[in-house]
Structures are given as C-alpha cells and as structure tokens.
UniProtKB/TrEMBL annotation:
Protein name from the UniProt record: Kynurenine 3-monooxygenase
The species this protein was found in: Pontibacter actiniarum
HAMAP family: Kynurenine_monooxygenase
Lineage: Bacteria, Pseudomonadati, Bacteroidota, Cytophagia, Cytophagales
Enzyme class: oxidoreductase
Record-annotated FAD-binding domain positions: 7-358
GO biological process, one term: kynurenine metabolic process
Record keywords: FAD, Flavoprotein, Membrane, Monooxygenase, NADP, Oxidoreductase, Pyridine nucleotide biosynthesis, Transmembrane, Transmembrane helix
C-alpha cells in the first residue's frame, strides 16, 4: 500500500466516477467536483447521448470493481447491425461470432450506478454544482465556482485528476504550458437525438437486439435500444449543404425529407417534428494532446485527453480502459515517483488513444456508406470464414477493437495488413461459395504466412 493521498477528481462523469472507486480501493481519499447537479436527485435533462454501446474493454473495468453483473441486468445485447434501405428492406450483419455482442446501456443509469457504489465509502465525497474555473498547475490549486451561490472556493489536493470531458478545464491549463501539443478537429457533421417510443405494453417496435442503421451515403441515422422499450435514434447529418441541418427549416421540409429517405422510421416516430426542432445539434470533435500530466501532480484521463468521434462506440470504453491500465501500473508502484508513473501511463496510452481516434473516423464511412453495399457485406462474410478457419491467426478488425483487449494501435496496424489481403482475396470472389476455390485457399495461406513473418 502506497502513502495515502488527498486526491481531487474534476468531473464526475463516467470516467471520473469509476476512477474514484479504483483510487479509494487503494486507500486514497477522493473528492469529486462536478459542475452538474446530482443526477440521482434531478430529473434527467433530456440531454445528449442517452445510451451508449458498452463492449469488452468497458466490461473489464466494471468487473474490476464488482459491478459487471449488476450492469448486465440492464444492458441490452446488440448482436449485429440491422440496415434499413430506402424501401424499408432489412439486411443484417453480425458483429462477431455467435453470442458476441455490444451492449446498449443508459448513460445516466450507468453513471448513477457508479455513484451509488461510492455511497457507503467514507473515502469518496461527491461535490455537485462545483465548476472548475481555473487550475494553477504549479501549486495544484483549483478554483471552483459554486453554481448555486456563485461563490468561489479553492482546493489544493496532493494529486489532481482531470476527468472533465472533451472541453476539459484541467487540460486548458496544461495547454498553456511550454511546448504543449494540442490538436482538435471538428467534423462537418453534427448529430441530433430523436426517439422511437415503446409500444403501449413496453415492447420494442423494431428488432431489439441489434444496432439499427439507415445508411444514406454521406449521412445516416442510427438507433440503439433502451431498456424501457424505446430506441434512441441519432441523425448524423452535415451542418451545411443541400441535405443538411441548415436546409431543414420547416416541419414540411423535415417530413418531406424523412418520408423520402427514412420511410419505415417515420411512422415509428410520432414526436419527430417536436423533437427535431427542440433538441440541440451536437458537434463531433477529435481531440489529441500531449503530455497528459504535469510534474507528477496532475493527470488527464478519459475524454479530457482523447475525445473521439462516437462512430466506433469506443469513447467511454477507451476511458474505462485508461483506468484498467492505470490500476495495473499501481499494482507494482512503490508509491514514490508519481511523475514517472504518470509518464509511463501517458506513453503507454497515447498511441492507443490516437489509434482509436482514427479508427472512429474510419468507422463513420463504413456505417454511413459501405454497409449499404452488397459487395461489402459479402466481404464481411468471407472475412468471417477466414477467421473461423484460422482462429489464432486472423481476428477481424472489429473483433480486435470491440471483443478483445489487444492495444488499439495493434488493431489498427493489423487491420491495415488484413485489408490489403482482403482486397486481393475479393478479386476472386463473386459469392460465398467461391471461398472454397483452390486459388482462394492458396492465396489466403500464402498471405497468412507473409503476415506471420511480418509480426
Ligand atoms: C453522441 C455520442 C455517442 C456516444 N456513444 C458512445 C458509445 O456508444 N460508446 C462509448 O464507449 N462511448 C460513446 N461516446 C463517448 C462517451 O460519451 C465519452 O467517451 C465518455 O462520456 C467520456 O467520459 P468522461 O467521463 O471522460 O467524460 P464526460 O462523460 O464528459 O464527463 C465529464 C464530466 O465532467 C463534468 N465537467 C466538465 N467540465 C467541468 C468543470 N469545469 N468542472 C467540473 N466538472 C466538469 C461534466 O459535467 C461531466 O459530468 C459517445 C459520445 C457521444 C457524443
Ligand atoms: N468527441 C465528440 O465529438 C464529443 C464528445 N462529447 C463527449 O460526450 C460526453 C457527453 O456529452 P454531454 O454530456 O452531452 O456534453 P455536452 O455536449 O452537453 O457538453 C457539456 C459542456 O461542454 C461544453 N461544450 C459542448 N460543446 C462544446 C463545444 N463545441 N465547444 C466548447 N464547449 C462545448 C458546454 O459547456 P458550456 O455550456 O459552458 O459552453 C457544454 O455544456 C462527454 O464525454 C463529452 O466529452 C460531447 C460532444 C462531442
Ligand atoms: N455507439 C455508437 C454511437 C454512435 C455511432 C456508432 C455507434 C456504434 O456503436 C457503432 C457500432 N460499433 C458499429 O460499428 O456498428
């Protein structure tokens, strides 16, 4: 056990709340400062990103504090993608092997469950309605504004964690330090959340155990199931242009557009117009920065140091994996040199954070465009056959990212090699049966041998 520290975490979102449990388990005293009110006492603000896809990396971190089973009870498995074309016809693509799924969970529900776990723990204290305004990295002092009274207080922890999300104030302070690398890039797309309500008896009106996609080339809508029978739909749409948020000005524009491009969804969305014109458009940003720590006294974690666009469903999972990795490093930490520990953490995580950022942008193109192409779906089937035939030698990129704990950077690199092989293989493929052709089998064997030599 290392020396007990007074730790302050800025932000009690998903990552901050989970981190507090891991740090308290090691005997530290943890205070969390969250600018929003206590979720458990206020009605949920119809806010953004109501549900999230949780996958293996996230599950592992939840397991580490013994909450996995409880969350599973309220998580809905999605075994694959269900594509809706412009006539309302459906096609299906499984995510992995039979039984493998990503899980739709409620953001608020998960955050509250994490907060509740700390309730009996005297070492964890939540301070709601406290907004970090300014951080002095040299003295480790944070100025916090009390949202209700407007008064400002200062705290000075031994260690400061910035888990305050994509627009982190703690990172803002680091950005002002010498030779700090920072990069942000916004997509020319925004997102808007809409609802498909439950049936009168609380059932699901479309397939419950799938992630639904309406791929339309340069834009798309998706839907993830909620536990109460509803679906949260997200329209990812250009800000400007002929078909864009800017071009939909009236209810008539909206309904004409939706009836043309999402005809099977419209009858399922009774509140479409009201929701469309009252819900905000969210922006989509990738943030890369380095370093993530300052002098062994402060450390960024989660979206604060690696916000990614949501298309792989990995942002929270990556943030949870940060905690798993940090916790593993704490296993062998002698409690002396926090600066070295934080350096080791940021050096280990940075290449993986960069990789998932790039993978997430790539998955947008796959989801909005490629999944509508029968050749692409055929290619996925062929790849699944290769993976079945060579289980130890070929994991699909999606499996490496979603159903494994292999580093994201390894997944990205291996995915590129496999993509090149698949392009060659597909030259010989017109149907699934062609997989058994001798020239295809020989080509795969040859390429796998080369791949092994490379790794
Ligand atoms: C539309 C959308 C869909 C997504 N879907 C998925 C998905 O399916 N799967 C997935 O894994 N990830 C998904 N993500 C990403 C995921 O939401 C984030 O990666 C995750 O929420 C990051 O958690 P965090 O705790 O680091 O940050 P946050 O969840 O943003 O938490 C930060 C907390 O800090 C608080 N805060 C901010 N500033 C201050 C301040 N100055 N002082 C005090 N408190 C402050 C905030 O109120 C918030 O509670 C999605 C994101 C979006 C936008
Ligand atoms: N990677 C991405 O593309 C995005 C990721 N996220 C992440 O999703 C999670 C949940 O998001 P949610 O809670 O709905 O967050 P919100 O979108 O509600 O944002 C929370 C606060 O961040 C500030 N903010 C929002 N958008 C911007 C912007 N474009 N530029 C500057 N500040 C902004 C606003 O603060 P104020 O009111 O003080 O201006 C806002 O109230 C968080 O992890 C967030 O980090 C959120 C949006 C995009
Ligand atoms: N949760 C999300 C939120 C927004 C956009 C996509 C997702 C996904 O999870 C996509 C899924 N991983 C897929 O590849 O089909």
């Amino acid at each position: 056990m290392t020396e007990r520290k007074n730790i302050a975490i800025m932000g009690a979102g998903l990552v901050g709340s989970l981190l507090s449990l891991y740090l308290a388990k090691r005997g530290h005293k943890v205070d969390l400062y969250e600018r929003r009110p206590d979720l458990r006492k206020t009605s949920v603000d119809g806010g953004r990103s109501i549900n999230l896809a949780l996958s293996d990396r996230g599950w592992r971190a939840l397991k580490g504090i013994g909450i996995e089973e409880d969350v599973r009870k309220v998580a809905i498995p999605m075994y694959g993608r269900m594509m809706h074309d412009e006539q309302g016809n459906l096609t299906y693509q499984p995510y992995g092997k039979e039984g493998q799924a990503i899980y739709s969970v409620s953001r608020g529900g998960l955050n509250m469950a994490l907060m509740n776990l700390s309730e009996p723990n005297p070492d964890i204290t939540y301070h709601f309605g406290r907004q970090a305004m300014d951080v002095n990295l040299h003295s480790n002092e944070v100025q916090l504004r009390n949202i209700e009274t407007g008064s400002v207080e200062t705290v000075q922890p031994d260690l400061l964690f910035g888990a305050d999300g994509a627009f982190s104030v703690v990172r803002g302070a680091m950005q002002k330090t010498e030779r700090y690398d920072y990069q942000q890039s916004y997509l020319e797309y925004g997102y808007k959340e809409l609802t498909i309500p439950a049936t009168a008896d609380g059932g699901w009106v479309i397939e419950k155990n799938a992630l639904h996609i309406w791929p339309r080339g340069n834009y798309m809508m998706i839907a993830l199931p909620n536990f109460d029978g509803s679906f949260t739909c997200t329209l990812f749409f250009p800000y400007e242009g002929e078909r864009s948020f800017a071009s939909i000005k009236s209810e008539e524009d909206l309904l004409a557009f939706f009836r043309e491009v999402f005809p099977d969804a419209v009858p399922l969305m009774p509140d479409l117009a009201q929701e469309y014109f009252s819900h905000p458009v969210g922006s989509l940003v990738t943030i890369k920065c380095f370093p993530w720590s300052h002098k062994g006294k402060s450390l960024l974690i989660g979206d604060a140091c690696h916000a990614v666009v949501p298309f792989y469903g990995q942002g929270m999972n990556a943030g949870f994996e940060d905690i798993t990795v940090l916790d593993q490093m704490l296993d062998t930490f002698d409690g002396e040199d926090w600066e070295e520990l934080f350096h080791r953490f940021e050096r280990t995580r940075k290449p993986n954070a960069d990789a998932i950022a790039d993978l997430a942008v790539m998955n947008f193109i796959e989801m909005r465009d490629k999944v509508a192409d029968p050749r692409f779906l055929l290619r996925k089937k062929i790849e699944a056959r290769i993976s079945e035939q060579y289980p130890g030698k070929w994991l699909t990129l999606y499996t490496m990212v979603t159903f494994s704990e292999l580093p994201y950077s390894y997944a990205l690199e291996t995915g590129k090699v496999q993509d090149r092989i698949m392009k060659q293989v597909m030259k010989h493929i017109k149907s699934v049966d062609d997989y058994n052709k001798p020239e295809v089998q020989q080509l795969i064997e040859r390429e796998l041998l080369k791949k092994e030599k490379l790794s």
